[in-house]
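1st attempt posting a full record on here, be nice pls
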Amino acid sequence: MLMGSWVALACLFCFACTLKENAKPVTYEGPLKQATNITMHYTEKEKLKTILQAKKYNEFLNGDREFPEGIYLEFFDEKGMMTSTLRANTAFYFKKENKWRGRGKVEVVNIEKKQQLNSEELFWFPATKKIYTDKFVTIRDQQDVMYGTGLSANQDLSNYSLKNTSGDLHATE
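the predicted structure (as C-alpha cells):
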C-alpha cells in the first residue's frame, strides 16, 4: 500500500509540473499622479497668462491630464488684467495635440464685453488661444442672445464665428 501511495504521489507531482500557466503581464493604464484641490499658474516670459483650479487632477503615463470633477480657468492679458474665464464640469488635456476638451456645463465669460458663451463641449488650443466646438452654443451679451451649432473663436470671445445661427438681436442706435 505504501508503494502505491508513492506512485500516486509521483504521478500527481509529474502531472502538476506539466500544467503551465501562461500569465500575461497586466498593463496599468490608470493615473500615475493624482492631486486634489489644485491651483496651477501658467506664465510666459514671467507674465501670468492663466490660472487653473480643479478639485481633482489625474496625470497619465503619456502626459495626458484628466480633471473629472471640473475645471476653472482665468485668462490674463499683457498688463496682468483678467480678460476671460472658462469653466467646465469635466476636462481633459491631450498632451500630444496640446489640446483641452471641456464637457458638461461649459461656460466662457468675456469680462470686458460682459459676454457669456455656454455649450456642452468645447475645445481649447493654448498655442493659438482659440476655442472650437461643433455642439450647440448660446452667446449672451447685455442686449442680445445668439444661438448656433458650431463655433470658432478667440479664447476671450473677442472675435468669433458662429454657424447655423438664430437669435434675438437688438439694433443699437
